[in-house]
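I had to read the description of the data format several times before I understood it. Each protein is reduced to its one-letter sequence and a matching series of backbone shape codes. The format is easy to grasp once an entry is in front of the reader. For illustration, here is how one protein appears when written out as sequence plus structure tokens:
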Amino acid sequence: MTNNIFWYNGKLINSQTLELDINNPGLLYGATIFTTLRVYQNSLDSNLTNWQAHCDRLLSSLQTFGWQQPDWNRLRQGAQILLAHFPVLRITLFPDGREWITGRLLPEDLTEKQKTGVVCAVASSEFYRSLPSHKTGNYLSAWLAKTSLDAQEAILVDAQGNWLETSTGNLWGWYDRSWWTPPIKAGILPGIVRSQLVNWLQNHQQPIQEETWSGELVQRFEAIAYTNSVVEVIPIHTVHQPTGSLEYNPYHPSFQQIRELFVA
């Protein structure tokens, strides 16, 4: 298996470098959109891979920004080729319709994190994502938040200190026999797995609350986690804050409920 291959503008390229014009807006301003998906059952058509939802999210951003659409058939062709080598694909689109697909392996410590949880730290409110409802190439604030803190993940907050999302996923909390997640209107990314879980819980008549995560609410949670399309569900056992740390149960039985979504 090699990490030296990627798909760009209709071609499979064997290299570690991508050549871009020095005036390319993607290079100058982070003017790209992207989505990252995990391929299940070695198939783009698996319900868990959720290929169409990822394409729909890309299309929504393209239409919002007025950018050129890619050749969707060629985009799928590139993804189909790369999935033979990688279980995780990152699909990036440029404003002029060019596609760039890279692949990677699942994190080596993923199983351990899913089992025992991770440590998070609350980031400064200045590290908010621009255009939060879209996955744009300008991910500097989230990257800075995660890399500048002594923790495995960062929790992004608004100007009032309300918890929004982590640097890589959506937040979930268990309290009063219900799952809670911050609302989209708070200024968070409408994650693919977040949407899947909301629908799954509603279809199984399980209570779910979409409420602002205030400083008071986060102290009530028995368990919290973050989700994204690659890692599924990662419990959070400790959150460091300027005012002190919060502890949560990473082995809470409620996690088994939402993990059932990922049983193929």
Q: What stands out?
A: The domain at 5-104 is CATH 3.30.470.10 (D-amino Acid Aminotransferase; Chain A, domain 1).
